[in-house]
Amino acid sequence: MGEKGLGEKDGRTVRWGIVGAGRIAHRFARSLARERRSELVAISCRSAGRAEAFALEHGVPEDGALSDEALGGAAGAAHAALLARPDVDAVYLALPHSMHLEWALAALRAGKAVLCEKPACVDAREARELVRAARETGALLMEAMKTRFSPLYRHVRDLVERGAVGEVRRVEALLENDMGDRIARGGDYLSDARGGGILLDSGIYCASWVEDYLGGPLEVVAAEARWDHGHDCFVDAELARGPLTARLVTAADAAGPRTARIVGSGASSPWRTCTARSAPGWSAPGPRPSTSSSPTPSTTSTTRSRTSSALRSPGEASRTSCPSRRRCAAPSCSTSWGTPSGRRGDRGRPQPPAHAWRPRLIPELPNG
Fold first, then answer.
1. Which residue segments constitute the domains of the chain, with CATH numbers given?
2. How far is CA 3 from CA 38, 64, 121, 131, 135, in A?
3. pTM for the full predicted model
4. How far is residue 40's CA from residue 12's CA, in Å, rounded to a whole number?
5. How far apart are CA 218 and CA 29, in angstroms?
6. Catalytic residue at 4?
7. What phi and psi, each to the nearest 5 degrees, are found at residue 144?
8. Active-site residue (options: 4, 112, 118, 146)
9. Taking the chain (368 residues) in consecutive chunks of 10 residues, what is each chunk's mean pLDDT?
10. Distance (Å, rounded) from C-alpha 17 to C-alpha 31?
């Protein structure tokens, strides 16, 4: 987004500033050190000690270690000082989700190219405002969606573009993690009042796969979610754009498949698929039984035929509880499981019963 380049054509070194000094900022700095046309010249954060330690670890000049504490204590003083520096060409925003809009706008208006950690925004209104600013300033704006640059993603993209699956008809993206009690414990971006929850954290990776292959506005046909202390910890959504369909599943409270599957109408067979896995050790169990006894769900909510905003907060849309309060045979059911006796499983989270079903994955299409 925007018109200004970053020196790839003229070979000049791009001088970077990192806004924020958390874990992801350290990862970016280590990667930047291996990019021969880049130089890290400044870092900004609240604590003077953290800024100095970051600068020492990653070779930032002493005058580039900026902190609110060293600049009088006003919140955001260090970030503003970094954006005012003429020796910073581009910034990487490594802040909590809810702070992205404010500082991305400030960086664009300061004439800096912006690489913003995902999600660039927390809702459509913010996205429109940010895109408008990028177009008005002509500065580069990019969301740091790293999966689009991985070898696996590029390989799958190449297969699809060469017609290996025919016309894309459906995309399924599943990314389920066991993050322990991070949401309940609070204190980080997952429990942030405005930008928290798993949908904006891991779910956005799934959304990027769906968007890349289906494009255009999508309707939420059905969605189910679990909530932990007011934040979504599990989302299973069925999406559609006309005849094209998609499924997005993301979780923070239980480990599961980490896969993307693209289904198309191939020329040599009615349906062909291309499946990408990021967790080779996970194997799908057999088909779901036709009937089973299921315990009472705890915090599962269901919504149907709503826009994506219905997934963001338990208070934004009315819902009906999962229909499987006693017996569940519905293929789309994703209840919040508990043990029949009501006991809680590992780390206090509801555990799936022995019959818990996950979708069977179709084997990968051979190369070529």
1. 14-144 (3.40.50.720), 148-288+300-322 (3.30.360.10)
2. 19, 27, 21, 12, 8
3. 0.71
4. 14
5. 36
6. no
7. -80, 70
8. 118
9. 55 93 96 95 97 97 96 96 98 94 97 95 93 96 91 91 91 90 77 81 91 89 89 92 94 88 70 54 33 33 39 33 28 28 32 30 30
10. 14
